[in-house]
Design goal:
127 residues; mainly alpha
Length: 127
């Protein structure tokens, strides 16, 4: 069961509805073709102008610092040794010499690392 229409509402379909009006003529095809042609030509002109503008702006543009930071970086080549066996013997001898000294307080060990340097890193200059 449906509610009745409000007294101010016009009936749109069915009994009591006014006769439907039908459009008597269509838009002229010539004017429609001109309108579509103008729209497409303006769109192409806008695309061409934006392409020229972007080309002009990017012509002398250097990459930003952020883009350079994101660029892939090739790692340096590995440090190859001419005589790896001799280097290994030298490293093991130095490690055995440090172990032969026995345990030492951490403060003394830190002072020795600062004086001697860490592996290949040079020692800090004395002040």
């Amino acid at each position: 069961m449906t509610r009745g229409l409000h007294s101010d509402t016009d009936v749109q379909r069915g009994e009591g509805a006014p006769p439907r009006e039908v459009e008597t003529r269509d838009a002229p095809p010539g004017r429609v073709a001109i309108g579509v042609g103008l729209f497409l030509s303006l769109m192409l002109i806008g695309l061409a102008l934006s392409a020229v503008l972007l080309w002009q702006l990017n012509r002398d543009h250097a990459p930003s610092a952020e883009a350079q930071a994101r660029a892939p970086v090739e790692p340096p080549p590995p440090h190859l040794l001419a005589h790896p066996a001799d280097e290994r013997i030298r490293l093991e001898a130095a490690a055995r010499a440090r172990l032969a000294q026995g345990p030492m307080p951490i403060d003394r060990a830190m002072r020795e690392v600062v004086a001697r340097g860490w592996d290949d890193a040079p020692a800090e200059p004395r002040r």
